[in-house]
Amino acid sequence: MSLYYVPLNLDKGELSMKHFRVSFLVTFICLGISAWWGYTHGGVQTMLAALGIAVILGVMEVSLSFDNAVVNASVLKNWDKFWQGLFLGVGIIIAVFGMRLVFPLVIVAQAADLGLMEVWNLALSNPEQYSMHLTNHHAEVAAFGGIFLLLVFLNFLLDSEKETHWLGRIEEKLGALGKISSISVMIALGTLMASLSMIEEGQKLVVLTAGLWGILTYVGVDVVSGLLEGDNGDGNMGDIVKRGGIGGFLYLEVLDASFSFDGVIGAFAITKDVVIIMLGLAIGAMFVRSMTVFLVRKGTLDEFVYLEHGAHYAIGILAVIMLVSMKFHVPELFTGLIGVAFILASLWSSIRYKRRMALLEGDGDKDGDKDGDKQPQLESAAKA
Known about the structure:
By secondary structure, the protein is mostly helical. It has one domain (15-383). The protein has helices at residues 2-5, 21-40, 43-76, 81-112, 116-125, 127-136, 138-157, 169-176, 183-195, 204-229, 237-243, 245-267, 274-298, 300-303, 307-324, 332-367, 371-383. The protein is globular and about 70 Å long.
């Protein structure tokens, strides 16, 4: 139950490493289990290898999902404490055991027509065959996750009500397209149909179906929220997510699932041991949740105005990478670094924006009576 109560205290206050205490505790536990697992399956040498791989997987998961933490924080900052606590506490259980262990098992179970316990035994006794089943269905999972993430990016980019634009006039013009009904879904469908040209004839139907499920899932969150929340459920996806509730919770869980499977597939390039994979990714997932708490409490997204933009652009690139990976191998290092690059670029732009605003406000204070003349400059800087 401690995982549930720790994140509930989200009021602004004194900030320290306490936000990461649970993450470090989970890390020590996971590393301890990794050491025990390695030692019982090969002695000291295997134990040291298991520890090293678990640490590498944790770092990889953080690099792949840092933009996910930023997007989560941008949503959670508008929620009440109950839904924040539910996502940050109960959500971590779903993220670690549901998405990084059970979800891959379900995929293999469906593909091989086996029961979950049979697949679990297969993963432990014959990890090579288990990973082969999993990677053989990478195209379908990539289509689902890629299209879902593409819709997340498009609904952020094509938002006519968005006031802050990282790319200036270009982004403002693109945002105006959001006035066209269902344009994001139309673009996603067009992208899905175009991506089928990379797929072999025998796989096109299952990949198309998976991509359509990605669209249906995204739209379905909107529908479910409307049904469960009644009159308060009316509105577009952005309003539903910002408001919180069951719709926003489902949205963030599906978003996390789309990110997590990319990490699971990448992990099998490092090791075939499903236990070490789960433990390593659990470490990374816990730190991503802790970063989310830190960003919410610190108010980082309000302080660095373009950080949310960078995260969404990274998600857009990740969506493209997932679709391309249906045909071509994309190194996990590249996937992780390009997301970090967008975050760092948006952070630098935010710092420059703050400096520019400080200079304009300073000039306005010096001029005193000319504050009215400076106001248009401040508004212009805010739109830049």
